[in-house]
Design brief:
single chain, alpha/beta, Rossmann fold, two-stranded antiparallel ribbon, 8 helices, 7 strands, globular, binds zinc ion
Length: 228
Amino acid sequence: MQILSQKRLDTVSLCILCETQLKHESLVCSLCQTDCCQSNLEWQDILLRADARHSIQNQYLSKLYSFNTHEYPFANWIAKFKYQGNLLAREALYQHVLSRLALNSEFNLVEFDLVVPTPIHWTRFWLRGFNQAEWIARIVAEKLKLEYAPIVKKCKYTHQQMSANANVRRSQLQNSFSLKPTQLKGLNILLVDDVVTTGATLNQIAKLLMKNKASSVSGLSLTWAKLD
Ligand SMILES: [Zn+2]
């Protein structure tokens, strides 16, 4: 299964978005690449944006970075990877993460001490076979030469509701996370997830990490699903 899928990846020569012939080793043609740039969030701290202030919870987060707004093609790739285990979508996301990390230098991501993935409940892990946030966090840690630390556990099962409002999400997530025994005193933590919507999950985990004496917790997600 793995070998067949890898072979398929090796033979791709059409843009996976518009299916034109590719001239270079990539999954997306230069025209589609330009389209992708339109949802680029340029490494800004989105907590400082006027349009994020009312929709994102940030009592415990220092900063929040997101690569793109949650739109085509990123939203599709994330869904295909997450729910169908689609390897082309995973490869497209991988290349995207690498290209965005290469442009991070002025944001001092390297000053973080730990890269912590947002956990999923074990039943979801069992059904899906992987945690996409762990996958992203490992890439970030490896490329930035930071310590990867999966130290947070999801101990309570909660239903996924992208559309749920902030208050609903907050009450669902109360006491949902626990921390593996870890010394966090004075550490600056980068918390990684695939999609941020209300920020409730990141905020709850940041609260737990800060209560255990972390110096700061910032978030990084592939996309930001902006609420109207
Ligand atoms: Zn294309």
